[in-house]
């Protein structure tokens, strides 16, 4: 099997955000160098070579020092020939001119900035390490070194956030003439500071109606910009859609390297161990650093095909579905399709099934219809 994509996880952060449930650790006193050496070994053992997309995320890859970042970039350069999209996640305050120049010199052609909001008070609430001014400086640095594609992450439905505040943040993001925007509502995840505060009654979120208003505003505002919507939470200029994320949404294979990373190879979904020290120990013992490996049943694969594919504006292609599973989409989900079409949540054409604007607002409800209980 030809695997076209890979994800590399850097689980270190300068500051731990209040909402984040990713596998991450405060970088101080962590065995970062030992981790990077083990990451190099895991990547080597995979025998992966030519890739169409590579995404380095976290945590925060830019939390690494220049020397550590150079070591990581050399590891990637030695192992992979990257034909297309090469993305690094970054925090605005860490994206110095020196680091941008370094990333550019090793072929990085896309930066994904964790902006979240342009409101300094809300940034403090989120536990972010940057301020609004850092966002402008980071984008300026990326433009100066001619990074071809710049993406921003922007959150809404935040504690204490008004519709006006979100509108202002979105307008400021678009004013930077960015190439790509990911914008998503806050979800309270267990084992986060926000979740614990919420359970104790110390955190109040805007009601669901305001969250829906924010999403509606987002979709309508994007229609008046140079970006177009291509997925529930993602918007891009022409030729700047995230090729790497499309691998996930199309249910295709990819490598996952690093502590807590997940991959999908030869029909097996796997997840690596989370704790950094456990990861280091396994790799040093010459073992694959796996926490779990599962082989989805055909029914599970079909369900994944539906709820991942429907995230994209292009929807689920009926011919592709039949080619993969030797069954017609309408035969598998005839009742569900009819019901959702009557509710105005999906469009059912001869070639594909896709969400309507109304369906995107309640996307999770639509996805659940395609999952067997």
From TrEMBL:
InterPro entries: Aldolase_TIM, Coproporphyrinogen-III_oxidase, Elp3/MiaA/NifB-like_rSAM, HemN_C, HemW-like, rSAM, rSAM_sf. PROSITE patterns: RADICAL_SAM (PS51918). Residues 1-231 form the Radical SAM core domain. SMART domains: Elp3. The keyword Transport does not apply. One of its GO terms (biological process) is porphyrin-containing compound biosynthetic process. It comes from the Bacteria. Its main location: cytoplasm. Gene3D superfamilies: Aldolase class I. The keyword 4Fe-4S applies. GO terms for molecular function: 4 iron, 4 sulfur cluster binding; coproporphyrinogen oxidase activity; metal ion binding. Keywords: 4Fe-4S, Chaperone, Cytoplasm, Heme, Iron, Iron-sulfur, Metal-binding, S-adenosyl-L-methionine. Pfam families: HemN_C, Radical_SAM. GO terms for cellular component: cytoplasm. It is found in: Cytoplasm. Probably acts as a heme chaperone, transferring heme to an unknown acceptor. Binds one molecule of heme per monomer, possibly covalently. Binds 1 [4Fe-4S] cluster. The cluster is coordinated with 3 cysteines and an exchangeable S-adenosyl-L-methionine. Belongs to the anaerobic coproporphyrinogen-III oxidase family. HemW subfamily. PANTHER family: COPROPORPHYRINIGEN III OXIDASE (PTHR13932), RADICAL S-ADENOSYL METHIONINE DOMAIN-CONTAINING PROTEIN 1, MITOCHONDRIAL (PTHR13932:SF5). This is Heme chaperone HemW. It comes from Staphylococcus coagulans. The gene is hemW.
């Amino acid at each position: 099997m030809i695997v076209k994509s890979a994800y590399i996880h850097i689980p270190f952060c300068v500051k731990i955000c209040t909402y984040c449930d990713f596998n991450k650790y405060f970088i101080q006193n962590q065995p970062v160098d030992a981790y990077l050496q083990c990451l190099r070994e895991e990547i080597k053992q995979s025998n992966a070579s030519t890739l169409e997309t590579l995404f380095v995320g976290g945590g925060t890859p830019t939390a690494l020092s220049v020397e550590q970042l150079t070591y990581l970039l050399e590891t990637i350069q030695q192992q992979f020939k990257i034909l297309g999209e090469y993305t690094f996640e970054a925090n605005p305050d860490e994206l110095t001119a020196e680091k941008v120049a370094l990333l550019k010199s090793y072929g990085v052609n896309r930066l994904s900035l964790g902006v979240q909001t342009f409101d300094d008070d809300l940034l403090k609430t989120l536990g972010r390490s940057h301020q609004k001014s850092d966002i402008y400086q980071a984008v300026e640095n990326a433009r100066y070194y001619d990074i071809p594609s710049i993406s921003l992450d922007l959150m809404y439905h935040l504690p204490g956030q008004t519709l006006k505040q979100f509108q202002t943040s979105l307008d400021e993001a678009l004013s930077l003439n960015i190439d790509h925007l990911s914008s998503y509502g806050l979800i309270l995840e267990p084992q986060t500071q926000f979740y614990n505060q919420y359970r104790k009654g110390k955190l109040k979120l805007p009601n669901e109606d305001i969250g829906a208003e924010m999403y509606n505003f987002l979709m309508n505002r994007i229609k008046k910009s140079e970006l177009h919507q291509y997925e529930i939470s993602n918007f891009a200029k022409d030729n700047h859609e995230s090729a790497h994320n499309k691998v996930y949404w199309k249910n295709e294979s990819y490598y996952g390297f690093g502590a807590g990373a997940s991959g999908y190879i030869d029909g097996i979904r796997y997840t690596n161990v989370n704790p950094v020290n456990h990861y280091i120990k396994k790799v040093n013992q010459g073992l694959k650093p796996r926490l779990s490996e599962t082989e989805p049943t055909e029914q599970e694969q079909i369900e994944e095909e539906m709820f991942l594919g429907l995230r994209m504006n292009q929807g689920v292609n009926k011919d592709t579905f039949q080619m993969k599973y030797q069954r017609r989409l309408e035969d598998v989900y005839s009742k569900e399709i009819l019901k959702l079409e009557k509710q105005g949540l999906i469009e059912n054409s001869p070639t594909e099934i896709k969400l309507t604007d109304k369906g995107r607002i309640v996307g999770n409800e639509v996805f659940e219809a395609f999952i067997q209980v």
